[in-house]
Amino acid sequence: MGGDGSSKPPAAAMDVESSTVAQPTSVLRSVLLSYAYVGVWISLSFTVIIYNKYILDPKMYDWPFPISLTMIHMAFCASLAAALVRVFRFVDLPADPPMTPSLYVATVVPIGALYSLSLWFSNSAYIYLSVSFIQMLKALMPVAVYSLAIAFRTETFRRASMLNMLGISAGVAVAAFGEARFDVFGVTLQLAAVAAEATRLVLIQILLTSRGIKLNPITSLYYIAPCCLLFLTVPWTFVELPRLQTAAAAGIVRPDLVVFGTNSLCAFALNLAVFLLVGKTSALTMNVAGVVKDWLLIAFSWTVIKDTVTPVNLAGYAIAFLGVAYYNHAKLQALKAKEAERKEDAEAGARLLTSEKDANAHKN
């Protein structure tokens, strides 16, 4: 009781009350931020895909030069990343270990080569396939990553996982069977893009993560974009440069700086969105958000672009979707189990340290 007759709660009680109020607020804020990161990433990824389709499709902007478009993206991203790193000092380059020339050749160059192939093939596929069907084919990414991880021995073979991969593959096969605009060359390009991207993801784990090299998307672009640009000049010189010269001489090709500038800016912003999403949440969150994005793209392709989506398409992709959902669920459970094991090890270590201190105290 206070001297004026009024009762005051103890300080400890006040702390408990304030923490009780603050905790739900902080959790709500964290959840809202996570949803915001997911929303920004889905919006930008959606925009880049539709924008690339608009530029490359013969029925729209009709720019049939996917290598040139990819090179424009890489040149823009490399320049902006260099400015952010070297001029504005927005992020620091890795220092432990430092990126030496020999390390660059051994790690970044193979990843850059695969990234250039992935971008080239995936952008080329938009000329031949619908947006909806491309998204259905991209459902094979977990299958490719898991198969390559087993081949490179970064994953162990599990029968349940392989059955899951076979289920995803069967669903994509059904979707392909029902595709109204099936093009063998376009499907080959997209499958090659999936294979190149999956190999790149596995090599990132082997070449970068295992050596303790951590790159965010800005430093990744700083190192990888110039490498991609250099690799792409080889096929561009032989495949597209002669056609570009002929089209330019005939006055057919007149690139719009606004279109290509905003398209490149969206591509760079997408990399920043990946940095926010993965850095503030997790790569698994991006995988789950990617499934939502795929359904949105299929719906947009069907209703706005007027691509033909058959019931067999949807049934096949629904099967693949269930497989991908189970794959993400299994990964989440594995992460939870690993985190629980880590906590148990930490608690056991703390108990052991406490018991050793008590034993030493009794001896003294």
From TrEMBL:
<dbReference type="GO" id="GO:0015297">
    <property type="term" value="F:antiporter activity"/>
</dbReference>
<dbReference type="InterPro" id="IPR050186">
    <property type="entry name" value="TPT_transporter"/>
</dbReference>
<feature type="transmembrane region" description="Helical">
    <location>
        <begin position="184"/>
        <end position="208"/>
    </location>
</feature>
<keyword id="KW-0472">Membrane</keyword>
<feature type="transmembrane region" description="Helical">
    <location>
        <begin position="161"/>
        <end position="178"/>
    </location>
</feature>
<keyword id="KW-0812">Transmembrane</keyword>
<feature type="transmembrane region" description="Helical">
    <location>
        <begin position="220"/>
        <end position="238"/>
    </location>
</feature>
<feature type="domain" description="Sugar phosphate transporter">
    <location>
        <begin position="36"/>
        <end position="328"/>
    </location>
</feature>
<dbReference type="GO" id="GO:0055085">
    <property type="term" value="P:transmembrane transport"/>
</dbReference>
<feature type="transmembrane region" description="Helical">
    <location>
        <begin position="311"/>
        <end position="328"/>
    </location>
</feature>
<feature type="transmembrane region" description="Helical">
    <location>
        <begin position="103"/>
        <end position="121"/>
    </location>
</feature>
<feature type="transmembrane region" description="Helical">
    <location>
        <begin position="258"/>
        <end position="277"/>
    </location>
</feature>
<dbReference type="GO" id="GO:0005794">
    <property type="term" value="C:Golgi apparatus"/>
</dbReference>
<dbReference type="GO" id="GO:0016020">
    <property type="term" value="C:membrane"/>
</dbReference>
<feature type="transmembrane region" description="Helical">
    <location>
        <begin position="32"/>
        <end position="51"/>
    </location>
</feature>
<protein>
    <recommendedName>
        <fullName>Sugar phosphate transporter domain-containing protein</fullName>
    </recommendedName>
</protein>
<dbReference type="InterPro" id="IPR004853">
    <property type="entry name" value="Sugar_P_trans_dom"/>
</dbReference>
<dbReference type="Pfam" id="PF03151">
    <property type="entry name" value="TPT"/>
</dbReference>
<feature type="transmembrane region" description="Helical">
    <location>
        <begin position="127"/>
        <end position="149"/>
    </location>
</feature>
<feature type="transmembrane region" description="Helical">
    <location>
        <begin position="71"/>
        <end position="91"/>
    </location>
</feature>
<keyword id="KW-1133">Transmembrane helix</keyword>
